[in-house]
Amino acid sequence: MTRFALTKILSIAAFTSLFTVSDASAVVYASNGNTGFGGVLGSLEITDDGTTITATLTRGAGALNDGFILYIDSIGGGSANTANFTDTADDLRRGISGFDGTNRATLNFPGGFGADRALGLNSGFAGLWATVEGGSHTFLTTANGAPGGATQATYAMTFSIADLGINPGDSFNFVGTYLNTSNAFRSDEAFGGGIGPGNPGVPSTATFSSFLTYTTVPEPSVFALFGILGFALIFRRRR
Fold first, then answer.
1. Among the four residues 56, 82, 158, 200, which has the most C-beta atoms within 10 Å?
2. Based on the structure, what is the number of domains in the chain?
């Protein structure tokens, strides 16, 4: 390899690195540490590649015998609480509603948070819904068709950034809860602040004081793409 060829390769690599945008972002969030249902909720890792989001729940000591619900505020104007959620069509819809048709375990979301999406997980299925007050939650996509049973170490749930109604580079807020989806009995295990030790149960009202935030990976800038292309053309002309 000639000195010019080596210099060319190194120069392109150095130039490209100036404009490289990371193609993945990962953040790990710890649960609140409560163990009312045996310490099921360990941690939640969220990552994305600019198109697809993966939320991976790492199980704690307890088995995933019930339902994990992650409420998401992505587009604004969502619900301040679950008091008017009435969908009881299946286990995860009951979990999202916190309502079994008779008994209700209401969640109040923190100030500045309005739930417009809900990611639901049990040992047999995971999906993403748009939340609806006084009607059926709108199913958006399967997030995991077969999670693998109650004692799997981790549960990976995937959905697109577009499913949240946002663009690459945008942020979304979330809180999480764990409850018996057959009778709405709510545990004290959660992601987000304000849920103290001791299961709220049912009927009950529990209030989050704070939420968590994740920022997705931005798309590569037009400037970066054109800059790399222009640099490559310069070297081509020098050959």
1. 82
2. 1
> What one-character DSSP code corresponds to residue 102?
S
Domain range for 105? 23-238
pLDDT one-digit tens code per residue, 102-134: 999 999 999 999 999 999 999 999 999 999 999
Count, residues in the chain: 239
Residue 13 within any structural domain of the chain: no
Single pTM value for the model: 0.86
With respect to residue 2, please indicate whether it lies within any of the assigned structural domains.
Answer: no
User: Which tens digits make up the pLDDT trace of 132-145?
Assistant: 999 999 999 999 99
The four Cα atoms 185, 191, 192, 196 give a dihedral, to 10 degrees, of 50
Q: How far is residue 147's CA from residue 144's CA, in Å, rounded to a whole number?
A: 6
**Residue 9 falls inside a structural domain:** no
Task: Indicate whether 14 belongs to any domain.
Answer: no
Contact 59, 40 (CB under 8 A): yes
Helix (H, G, I), strand (E, B) or coil at 93: helix
Coil, helix or strand at residue 229: helix
Closest CA to 85 of 99, 73, 71: 99
Q: How far is CA 161 from CA 49, 134, 135, 172, in A?
A: 9, 26, 25, 10
SS3 of residue 91 by DSSP: helix
Given a contact cutoff of 8 angstroms between Cβ atoms, the answer to whether 141 and 163 are in contact is yes
Q: Are 131 and 120 in contact (CB under 8 A)?
A: no
Alpha carbons 194 and 111: distance in angstroms, whole number: 12
